[in-house]
Design goal:
The protein has 357 residues and is α+β, with helices and mostly antiparallel strands. The protein contains seven helices and 15 strands. The strands form four sheets. The chain has a four-stranded antiparallel β-sheet, covered by helices on one side. The longest helix is centred in the middle third of the chain and has 23 residues.
Amino acid sequence: MDVLRPQLIKIDGRIYRKNPIQEQPCLHEEDDEDFFEGSVECADEPCEAYVVVQTQQGFRCTVKAPSLLYKHIVGKRGDTKKKLEMETKTSISIPKPGHEGEIVITGQHRSGVVSARTRIDVLLHTFRRKQPFTHFLAFFLNEVEVQERFLKFQEEVLEKCPLDRGVDASIFQNPKKLHLTIGMLVLLSEQEIQQTCEILQQCKQEFIEDLSRGKPLEAEMAGIEYMNDDPAMVDVLYAKVHMKDGSNRLQELADRVLERFQSSGLIVKEWSPVKLHATVINTRFRKDPNAEGRYNLYTPDGKYIFKERESFDGRNILKLFENFYFGALKLNSIHISQRFSVDSFGNYVSCGQIDFS
């Protein structure tokens, strides 16, 4: 890292810089899981950035955080918490593991309480980004015509391209789980799921109703494309979706929803703009029917998993089915979908939704 250009971290509209420090050698790889490697500073941090209450004993500030992240504030043997308390001259009270609540910071000096709160925010932000995705915002593509046309596509591909390397039935999407992803979410508590529902409702009131005109978005699913650079070495093949009227309303809606959730901290922006696509073939399905593409890359503790995958030769498929028509769509809802789940209809479990009409 260039010391003159340190990494910047944006949290709730404030910019922090992560300064490099001399790292100590680690004997055990897992031992660094609960420690934040680096110091954090905020230039001209205003005290008004947080709600700090004056008490008879000094000052007090609270932080809402899911219980799954408490351990990162505590650290191994409590070392992280002790260091924070010592350096900011504060006392930090954290709920017991498994109990939802608030982290409470108290201290004699307002500046120390604000400093502790700032550091805790950065820790929470850092380790939240290491959590595996739990949910995603999506349009469900569960029209009967689309599912039937998808099965026809699968049947014809297997019939016309049986000798193409890597092509077999195991790599096709489940037709009941066809969807358009807007963005991936890390939701670690029921409160965060509720917060997501509330943000979606705000999006509906502020701009979705105008863009949708209070009616389902009429779209079409037609044509196929691949993700990587070599059509002979394909891992993901997707169907393209566009508005029937040729407008950009679907793309604009998705981009604005993504932007709103990115600013909330619940979503990590993957594309700019959102790459709307309906995955029809994914080689990760070959070994794991429940795999969900490139997002299935981390263990629960945030460590990267390297999984070899066998690509397929997509040249004939792309030539023969370049303009395959999957059907008409009436996109009327955005769902908060839970990963690796199945409802009674075979789709992803929806933890909440908004409807356009």
